[in-house]
Each structure stands twice: as C-alpha cells, then as structure tokens.
Amino acid sequence: MIEIPHWLDKQTDLQPNATAIELEGRVVTFNDIKEKSQRMASGLINSGVKKGDHLAILAGNRLDFVYFIHAVSYIGAVAVCLNIRLSPREIAYQLEDADVKHVYTEQEHINKASEAAHILKKQPSIIPLGTLPDSEKVMDLNQFLKLDDVFTMMYTSGTTGKPKAVMHTYGNHWFSAVSSALNLGLSTNDKWLVCLPLFHVGGFSLLMKNVVYGMPIVLLNRFDAPLVNDHIMNNNVTLVSLVTVMLQRLLKSQDELYPSTFRGALLGGGPVPEPLLQEAGQANIPVFQSYGMTETSSQIVTLSPNDAFRKLGSAGKALSPASLRVIANDGLTSPNEIGEIHVKGPMVSSGYYQHEPHAEDYLATGDLGYLDEEGFLFVVDRVKDMIISGGENVYPAEIESVLQEIKDIEEAAVTGINHEEWGEVPSAFVVVSDQSSITKEEIYNFCQKRLASYKVPRTINFVSELPRNAANKLVRRNLAQLLDEED
Amino acid sequence: MIEIPHWLDKQTDLQPNATAIELEGRVVTFNDIKEKSQRMASGLINSGVKKGDHLAILAGNRLDFVYFIHAVSYIGAVAVCLNIRLSPREIAYQLEDADVKHVYTEQEHINKASEAAHILKKQPSIIPLGTLPDSEKVMDLNQFLKLDDVFTMMYTSGTTGKPKAVMHTYGNHWFSAVSSALNLGLSTNDKWLVCLPLFHVGGFSLLMKNVVYGMPIVLLNRFDAPLVNDHIMNNNVTLVSLVTVMLQRLLKSQDELYPSTFRGALLGGGPVPEPLLQEAGQANIPVFQSYGMTETSSQIVTLSPNDAFRKLGSAGKALSPASLRVIANDGLTSPNEIGEIHVKGPMVSSGYYQHEPHAEDYLATGDLGYLDEEGFLFVVDRVKDMIISGGENVYPAEIESVLQEIKDIEEAAVTGINHEEWGEVPSAFVVVSDQSSITKEEIYNFCQKRLASYKVPRTINFVSELPRNAANKLVRRNLAQLLDEED
Fold this sequence. Notes:
The structure is a homodimer of 487-residue chains.
Chain A: E1 3-5, H1 7-14, E2 19-23, E3 26-29, H2 30-46, E4 54-58, H3 63-75, E5 78-81, H4 88-97, E6 102-105, H5 110-119, E7 125-128, E8 144-146, E9 150-157, E10 163-169, H6 170-184, E11 192-194, H7 201-214, E12 217-219, H8 225-234, E13 239-243, H9 244-252, E14 264-268, H10 274-282, E15 287-293, E16 298-303, E17 317-318, E18 323-328, E19 331-332, E20 339-344, E21 363-371, E22 377-381, E23 387-389, E24 392-394, H11 396-403, E25 409-419, E26 423-432, H12 440-450, E27 459-462, H13 479-486
Parallel strand pairs in A: 2-12, 4-5, 4-6, 5-9, 6-7, 11-12, 11-13, 13-14, 14-15, 26-27
Antiparallel strand pairs in A: 1-8, 2-3, 9-10, 15-16, 16-17, 18-19, 18-20, 20-21, 21-22, 23-24, 25-26
Helix pairs in contact in A: 1-2, 1-7, 2-3, 4-5, 6-7, 8-9
C-alpha cells in the first residue's frame, strides 16, 4: 500500500510562507492552513472524534471548510460533504445513509442541519464551525496519507434516484490532481480560481490541486462574473473551472481581451455550443471541455483548446493515466457507434458506501456516447436522463419520487427542458386520479417544501398517460413530445 | 493493485504524430516508437521470449535501446540494463547474478558480450540488436502496466563492493517522473536533452518522462559540449540533465547568454562549487542541484535555483511525495546534526534482486548528511567512501577486491583523490609482502584487464600499513593523509 507524506505538511515544508489561498482580500499561507487545520484536528480529537468517524460538513466556500477538510485527514476520519442547497429531508437521508456521527456547519445553515437531525431516530450532533474546540496542543496526527484509505464521501444518484455516497480515497484525489497536471501542464505561475462549490467534486478537486501542486487558489464563495473577470484581468489568475452558464456570463460582463497569461477555462457540464466557443475564442479564452463525474473525482476526459473547433461537441480523450471504452452488446463498439461509456483509472472511485464495490475493472458510467475515428469521445446522453441545471445535476427519479408522495398523483415523470439561463430546468408530467381537483400550484408548493429550489419543476403538465416502451418502462426522452402535443 | 494504460499507447492515443525523440537530425513520433516497439516485442515473443524473462541490454544511447525497453514492457519481461563500460568479467557477474536469459547488444559490444558469456557455465544467448526478429504480426501485448510489477534492474554497489541489482517497478519510474513534474513544473513547450547514458537511472528516467509526460527529448549518444549548447541555443531545448563536469564544459564552450526559454540544468553527483554556480548564474543557466541514487529512480531531493546561493552546498528538500529523515543513534537528529540519510516514497525501489527486501519503511541510504534549521539537506559523505569520477560511481571495495587477487599484495585500500577534469579518480594504497618485487606498473596492468577504465586506480601507493579504527576496520577517509606523509 502506497503512502505519501501528508500533502499539507509537505507544502508547508517546501514553501511555508507561499500564498496558498486568497479569499476576500485575505491571504493565507500553507503554514497558516497547516497551523489552523492541526489545531482544529487536535480540538476534534479532544472532543472525542476518532479515526474512521464519519463527519459531515455543511458549509459554503470558506476557510473553515478548508481547515475542516485537512483536519479530517490529520485525524484519519472521513468527510461527508453535504450540498448546502439540499432540503432538511434530503440532508437527513444522507446523514443516516452515511452513518454520520457529527455535523459541522456554518451559522447560516445551523437550523437546516438541526431540522434534518430531528427527522432521524439516531441524531448526529450539530456543531457550529465557529464554536469548534481549538486546541493548542497538537495531538498525534497523521503524518502520512495512505492512498487506499477513504477520505471523502459525496452524494450522487444513478437512474434509480436514490442518492448514493461516492467514496473517494486519498489516492483517487491525488491521481486526479496529477492527471490534470499531466494534461494541462503545471507552471510555478499558476493560480486557479475556484467559484464552484467545494462540496461538489469539481470545486473540491481544486482544494486537492492546491496541496498536491503547492499552487495558490483564489476562493470565491459564489460565482460573480465581474469579480471573476477582475481576478483574471488584474490578479494573475491563470486557470478557472466553470460550467457553461458561467462562461456565458463572464463573456457578457467583459469587453476587453483576456490577457495571454490566462491559460484558460476548464469546463464541465456537457458540450459547449459553437457560438459560445467562437465568442470565447475571440475574447482570448482557451476553453478545455471535459467529461467527468463524482465517481471519477472530477474530469477524466478532456478536449484541448487546439481541437475545440475541429472536434466540436466532443469531450476529448481520456487523461493519462485513465482509460475509456464504449461498450454495446457486450463488446467494444466500432468508431461512431453509440454505446455505454466505461472508464478506468486510479482516480475512479471503487464504489458507493453501503453498496457492493464495482464488480468490473471498468466503471460503467450509465452515459451513452461514441468514439470517432481518431478516438475522440462524444457524449450523447449525459447520465441517460439526467438534467443539468446551472451546473447542478438534477435526477428526474428523485423528483418523481417526491411527486408520487402526493396522494392525487398516480404517475409522474420528469425531464429537462431547455432554459436560456440555466441550460436546462426540470419539467414534470403527471397523471392524476379521475376525481382529483389538485392544482399545479399545490403540486409546486409541495415540491418546494421537499426539494432544493433548483430541483423544483419549473413547469407542471397534466397528461393522460406517460410514454412507456414495450417492457412498460418509462421513456423519459419522449416526454418532450407530450409538451409539443399540448401546445 | 494500480494499473495504468501502457504509457506509449497512451501518448500515441493522445498525440500520435507529435515528436517523441530527436536523434542525430532524425525525428521520431510517438506512433513511430509504438510501431517499432510493438513489432520488436512481437518478434521477441515469436523467438521464444516470455513474460517474466530477464533480458539484458548492452547498448549506448540509440533508438534500438528505446524500442527494446518498450518492447520489454509490452511483453512483461524485465530489462537488465548493462553499463557498456564494464569489463567482460564484470558483465559476466551481472548476467549470472541477474539470471539473464538473453543479451541484446549493439554491434560495437558484441565481442565483449560474447567474452562475458563464455566465462559463465550457463551461457545466455547473445543477440545483436540489428538482427532482432521483426514481426509484422503484433501478438497479444500488454495494454496495461501494473505499477507493482518489476520493469528494470540496474546494478549498483553498496560499501561491500559486491554489485547488487536494484529492481525498479513501473510504479517507481512513474512516480519518479511525476514527482519531478510536481517539482519543476511541466510545460507543453518542454524539450529535455539527454546526454547521460540510458543504462544509468539518470538517463533512463528521461526516457520515462518522455512517455509519462508526452514530452519530446533530444537524445545524444554521448556528451558533446558544443552540440549540447547548440541544441539549447537553437533547438528550443528547455531542460538538460548533467553531472557537474558537464556543466563546466558547457560554460567553457559558450560565450553567449543562454536564452530565457531555457528552464535550466538538473545536476546530479554532489554539490556544485560556488564559482561554478556563479558562472552558471552569469550565463543565465538556472541550476537545480539534486540528490538521488539508483535506488530512488533518480533525484529524490532537489534544490531550486532560487535557493542555490542561500543554501550553498545543499541538495535541497525531498520531492513531493517523498520523505526524508536523518538518523543518528536510532533517533531523529537535531538540526545540523550529522546522521545517516533515510528516504521513503513510491519512487524508492523495494529492494535488490537476490536479496531480502528492505525491512524498514525507509531506505537507509548509507549516506551521511544533516538537515539545517529550515530542513534543507546537506550531504556530507556521498555513500560513505564512494568515488564519483566523471559522473560514474566508483566503489572502492570493488577495486580493492581486484587488487587483493594479486598474490604479492597483503592489503589494499582505495580512495578518491581530487582531479581537475573528472572531479575524483580512484587512488590505491597497497601493503605488499616483504619479499615482493612487484612494480606499480604490474599492478596497474592487472587492474586494466579486470576493470572498466574509469575504475582503474590513477595512482598506486606502497604503504607499510593501512589506517584502521579501534575495531580494526579500515578508515578510508584517512588514506589521503598517507598521501601527504609520502610527499
């Protein structure tokens, strides 16, 4: 089993006084982060936290999140990263499923966390991050990280709609960071701007690059186009991770050319439309399109800006040292033949908590795609019917199960419909019982209480039946046709 | 067990037509190398070579060496890299010790290889590289490399003087390459010049960077100062690996400033004297001093050019993800206290062929050194009494054992003496029997027949007794005093 020196110790040893994080004008060095994280770890140990404990964090992009994550690694505990946009009910499900012992939360979300805890029989303790015990004495902390040890859990959901905790080892995160460096290169001048949430793997992976590369990051607690542009233009930011809607907004709020020192934008969340690529090119923004998921610890396939126009719509090629294949009828597909995308590599999670580990060598992603003659990947359906709304993954089955809790609703199906600002938004199709007098507004209000706002259907359509295939399985991609018929 | 796609397949997939190697004006792409190596692998399999076989290579820096190395990895065999400067007797020892089945050699060294084979009872076959079977049909070749599998063996020798084969896994080489990238950065403009022999780990590691990074290398079959300078000045070489004597020669043969695109020289083989550092600085050459050995798959400690003058004489800090500690009296030393250097990391070999694996977590290097208050390593004695002559490691005990074969010699000891051109050269001190009339010339001639020329003592001194400590152990560092007394 491979172990490496604790990455924060290592960076503190190599460059103690180098800037690690910039946040709201504050500059924090690697030594600062180590000090704070080790004190927090010591405090946690003093308060009874043990190696292997599952500790949830419910917080936005703030330094306490960073200190907490490293404290967890110094203890050898596991960090369960919660989405702050989830409803109390959703949080409760994850707390129970993940066997969470304590929840650490920022002031802003303390009520939500408490509400979630009260739903559960076995209630985890809720601890405000600001009141965390801070110990002077640094206890016996991990000096090495074993690459096979589980470090984080983040929730995702397959087509079943039941959220599952993806387990990431230290190795998954380390190899992901290194793969990205082998792909994008690594310069001592690099500074990466983080405006994606740290509780998702896209943002979290930048926290890992921060300590694996020893690279400074600029941390924003939310996306703000003028502010991001200002950091690129005036604060030597060389790289930024975005979803498509953010790139659109950046371009809208900026007239000047981007500086040549800006190495580019790494884009997740589906292919970038050609006009946007054109616009980015004219503004001097190299765009790296990518494909990845929580299970791959961030991007695993990337398209270089050189190929962006030549391979329009492609996600690129599998990073070194990852592998990719497309399978149909139990065999490899021919070029341009659609099949399921399978991936493999040391950055791929070995499985979900409470589930059997992946049986196969490759992870079947559930996504459909094809490879062209030159081996470039084109993703056809991103997680079959998954909706991507403003960069957030929305799983129809999850919304459907909430709808089906409504007595009057006999059947429900959800699909994504195009939306100018968010890319896609969820739209619900429901079959109600004959005697029912339920209104769209009542359904909407019910959803609002149970779901994060971005998951609440934007439109609700009453239909007489749902499209089903021969095996009586719902065919979500045919839902949009019902919409057309209705018009 | 982690496995990664075969690195040459990966680069061929990512950038088939990119330049991989430049050699004597020829340009070879990754696709060319893959084609040639896979054909060679197929030919070897057709000729009976099997997975796990030990195959020796006796060749200088040429494309056949490169194809052979990759062919070995496609088969899953083990490459035993022989130093072309060894005597037939020395080669014979290594062939036998390493259980070599076949020796692949360039025309130039075929007689030496045959002579070596004839010494042995169980003779390996000698196969000229030029006549290697070349198969059209590509057999079932490795598509993945398991990081724990042994890939290469290279000979080194501890203080005992008995050469031992350091086993390197794919993982050792991969992590070494990645560690170097995390330290030096990695640019798409990088091009590394290789003038160190590929059969040593310093040169070999650049062959690994070539396929792990997908970075072009310029391969020279020997060091030639004007040629190296020409590549730096006119062929966009950004990095070069050197030993100190080579840096001296580069500076001597060049008057112009080096271009700012030249990122620097990675230097092995002991600390660089201040005047040379000054000269390099004036010529605009950033110098990365380093410490490493065959067992660490190349440098494991590096000093950045920023610290070169501030930390004169230091080898720097342990690369991420490696660790370093200095041990004396079974405990960690205080700052500035000398002890034995211990290293750990996924690039450190797990042991020697035919020997027990390292029992400890850390590898005891046998080198003495100390860490200063800031944690910078200073190496005091490089492998206790080892002599570094023109970048070659010379082990006194090995020469002593040859000297002791001479009947008239009762005792022999060897140490390094300073030499303007080679840094150090071996010098012998012998105690001969009372009745002996043996001459220095006779001793010299005997050594010449048995040892590579760089190991033959440059001076031979008759002394009445050797310096020994209380435990009657030879104290080689006191030999130089005898020289002074003699003068």
